From TrEMBL:
EC code: 2.7.4.25
Species of the source: Chitinophaga agrisoli
Catalytic activity: dCMP + ATP = dCDP + ADP; CMP + ATP = CDP + ADP
Any one Gene Ontology cellular component term annotated for this protein: cytosol
Main subcellular localisation: cytoplasm
Subcellular location: Cytoplasm
Protein name: Cytidylate kinase
Amino acid sequence: MKKIIITIDGYSSCGKSTLAKQLARELDYVYIDSGAMYRAITLYFIQNRVDWANSAAVAEALTNIQLEFEYDELHHEQASMYLNGENVEPLIRDMVVADKVSEVAAIREVREFAVAQQQQMGEKKGIVMDGRDIGTTVFPHAELKIFMTADTAIRVERRFRELYAKNKNITLQEVKENLELRDYIDSNREISPLRKAADAIILDNSQLSMDEQLQLALQWVEDAT
Ligand code: C5P
């Protein structure tokens, strides 16, 4: 089967990364979590007190940021995000980063920096990338574009369970507010707002099991190859 580019976009906590990892495993593709890149940049800005309202400070800071994914040899769909040689995987999932990431991801210089690297990663095809603007901006000519949605209450519950497993102080309300705020900023920003690409297929997984969503997506892959 010929290798293609698969893009998965959608609102926060729709299960995009779960489907992307399932597809990467089944198809022996590379999985790229583009959100991890925006999270790592945000972490760097917070740690280094970068004033991100100042474009010169942002441009300067970006020259000091090196992002890399490291793959687990056995489960190559499991990638860890490295920021300047350090594994920042647990840190970028923290609420401190989640609270600021959409603000940082709306900055033009930040998006240009991330998108250029994402486009390079897709040159060899055989890639599944999830995010907000992958089908619209990063790979507008991708062979298969999926736009995922799920009921808000279901998305909040899923994200809460994920975060609560690591931090018992987190509240459902806090998670709900963060999710709604990120969706709002991501959908209303000026550059590459979250949108369904005209040729994307909608996948509402509110009532689907993991296996059902995978089977659907695999059928679409077959149709696209
Ligand atoms: O996918 P995840 O929830 O980890 O993404 C974190 C944030 O990164 C999003 O809320 C959004 O602000 C930003 N993002 C983006 N474009 C992408 C992927 C993520 O703006 N392609």
